[in-house]
Structure formats: C-alpha cells, structure tokens
Amino acid sequence: MKKILIVDDEKSICISLKAWLEDLGYIVDYGNSFEAGKDKVEKFRPHLILLDIKLGNKNGLHFLQEIKKSDESIEIIMMTAYAKISDVVRAVKDGAYNYVSKPLNFEEMEIMILNAFKQINLKNRLLLLKKEQEENKNHIIYKSQIMHELMKKVDLVSNNSEVTVLITGQTGTGKELVAEEIHNRSSRSNSSMVKINCGALPNQLIESELFGHEKNAFTGANTRKKGLLELANEGTVFLDEIGETTVDFQTKLLRVLEERKFRRVGGLEDITIDVRIIAATNKNLKEMIKKKIFRADLYYRLNVFPIKIPSLCDRKEDILLLANYYIEKYNLSFGKKVEGLSDGAEKAFKNYSWPGNVRELRNIIERILIVRNKGLIEKRDIAQLELDKSNQNINSYMCCKNNYNEEIKNNLEKGSVVLDKELGKIEKEYIELAIRKTNNNFTKASEMLGITRFSLKRKYDKYFNK
Description:
The chain has helices spanning 11-23, 34-44, 60-70, 85-93, 106-136, 145-158, 175-185, 203-211, 228-231, 247-259, 285-290, 296-302, 319-334, 343-351, 357-371, 379-382, 389-399, 401-414, 419-437, 442-449, 453-464; strands at residues 3-7, 27-31, 48-52, 54-55, 58-59, 75-80, 98-101, 165-168, 193-197, 212-213, 225-226, 236-240, 261-262, 271-272, 276-281, 305-308, 337-341, 374-377. The chain is α/β, with parallel strands linked by helices.
C-alpha cells in the first residue's frame, strides 16, 4: 500500500489533497504543523511526503533535513507559494525529490507522484541488491569439520592472488560459491570476477567469449569485441566445467596460464593480462588424460592449488543447518512463515543420500515452501519428493558408510556377526535397488551391478522367490 503524508499549515489544503489522493487509491494522512507532521511521520510511516515550505513560523526546509537524516528512503515533494530559486535549489540539495508551486496543478502533481513512487521502488530494489551482495560475502553455510578444513584452504589461497586453483566435486556441491569466496577474500575483490560455463557453449563460442575477436574474424563478427579475459584484467576468471573443452581450446588456454598472453580470434597481436584463473569440474581429469581427451600439461598448470569439495552426505552435520538456512531464505522471498522441520522430516533429511547435493536440498526446500505457508515441514510434505526407501538404501550403503562401519564395529564387539548373513543383506539390497531403478529390466540391472543376467536371475530367485 502506498502511503502519503501531507504537511501543510492550511487545513483546507490538507483536506482537499487528502480527498483527491484517496480517490487515486493512496492511503493518506496529514499534519497541520511542524510538530504534528513529525509525529505523523513516526506513527504513519509514509513513503512520500507533500511538504509545505512554510509551516507557520517554522521552515519546511528544516523539516526536510530532519526527515532525511532519520530516513533517507522517504521521498519528499516540496509545495510553495513563494517559489524562490534559492529555496528550491536548497531543497533539492537537501534531498527533496521535486517541488510544485501553489496554486496546485493536480494533473502535474499526479504525474510527479507517480514518478516519485517509481523512484522509491528503484531505491528499494537497489537496497535489496546491496543487502543480497552483503549477505553473499559470507554465503557458505557449514559447521562440519570437513568444511572447516576446506575453508582454511580457501583462506590460504585467497591470500595468494596469483595462484591458479582447480576446484573439483560432484554436481551441486557449490564449486562456483567456493570460487566466489576465493575472489571476494582476495586482493582482487575490487576488480571483476567473470564466469564462463564451458559446458553450456559451443567451443567456437567459448574462444570468442574468452579471448574476444577482431572484426570480420568469422561470419557475423561485424565489430571488434573484447573477451572476458580482457574485461577481467586484474580480477578473476572462473572456468566452470573445464572438462567439457576440446584439446584445441586447452592448448590456447595453456598459453594463457604460462605466459599471461593471448590473441583475439582472428587477431595478430598478443594481449597481456593480469588475472587469476579458477577452474572447476565434476569430471575425473586424470581418467580423461589417459583417454587423451584432456591435456596433461594443462591439468598440471590448473592443479597448482587443488580444492576438492565434499558431497553433502560427507558433511551430514551441515544438512539441517542448510535446510534451516534455505527455509529462512524462502520465507523471506515468498512471504511465508514456515518454522522449520519436524522430527520426522529431520530424520528423513538426515537419512537421504542427496545425490544432487546442496543444490538438490535447496530446490526441495523451495518446492515445499511454494505450497506450505506456515508451521513445521512434516515428513508427509517431502514424501512425494523421492526421499524414499531406495534412496535411503543408497545412503546407507554408499554415502553413510561411516555410520554403517560403526554398527559393524558394535556387532563385532558383541560377538553377534555372521559374515555370510551380513554380506547377503548387502547383496540383497543392491539387487533390489538395481531392479527397482531399471523398472524390472534384468538386462540393464545386471549391467548396473557388473554381473551376468543369468547370475542376477539366480541371486534374485535366492532372495526373493523362496
């Protein structure tokens, strides 16, 4: 709701303006003196003030100064029957949005008020953006020991702003966030950080984006274009999904890393730059080197300072912390009042494998808060989001092996282990999961398990067709 306060010592003007503005759909109040106006500002909390430049024996310009000192977000339009240039200049200098002369022209005022509210909306958006940027300076949420160790590495490499960094980890673990953290903590933070997703662009376009191109270098290159390397000079270049690039591109990138020089596409002159390169991938680059689809020399140049981000199931202490962080985040975004996770939901979250890592957790919280308005997130809220038994099985035997090992240790101490029986349980769970994942396709399931179809059928009959 848009709220307007009128401050004028002529009550008739206040009443007529109030009636007119309410007809336009605004919420309106007024004060007939300097003191009454200040009191209304505190209680009414207006977005816009229509302020007379003369308030009895008081000066409206002083009122303007006081309001702007206490709340810069309030826009003020000055009204005057004595339009002295010196007063107008002073009012604008002190923060007034604009001024109108008496007698008032309502058509002119309507346009001015509309524009004032556009200005207010723009300021609010800028404030939100600034707040978001401030929050993003410390946006890696964790309490686990493994993440404490990782952040020590981030601190160390941030203080060495020339060092090339290779970030590895599964999809959704937050490789880009770690790259941003390194940049923001480094001496290069006042310069640009440019990002390029090597897996999202054709390799020809990657070269043009990264190196730039000369006019007529290829069809459609009608002008010279600076590349991201030039734009990021003295800053950071983040190359995500570096494993998706061709060997030809890797050769050109190697020269950048070795000499800090490159040529635009179609160019003849070398361009020297000062940038830090941070690369990231979810692929096994060593295996790609064996297959000759990734250059070994580039790998060694990128891998000067390696950082491996753990999967979410390897930092289980952070799961509920992250869940509550995203609940609060989407509460603010969607205007909801969800209080957190119930005991059942917490257990489901902790037992789930999170194959999509932090990104999956964030997306699930977002989906839940789209439909839930308040209260606790219950287990039934997440039942349809694939946090099912099959995924819990993956978690138990693949992701949560530390907990499983602890259980085995306890059983050994009790002397209650029958090895064949325990191995059979595991084998049965894997077979059941593979069959379910392939929709009862025994051929695909046997390939998934690395055994023959005949062997799978025999084992299946052993466990399930007794």
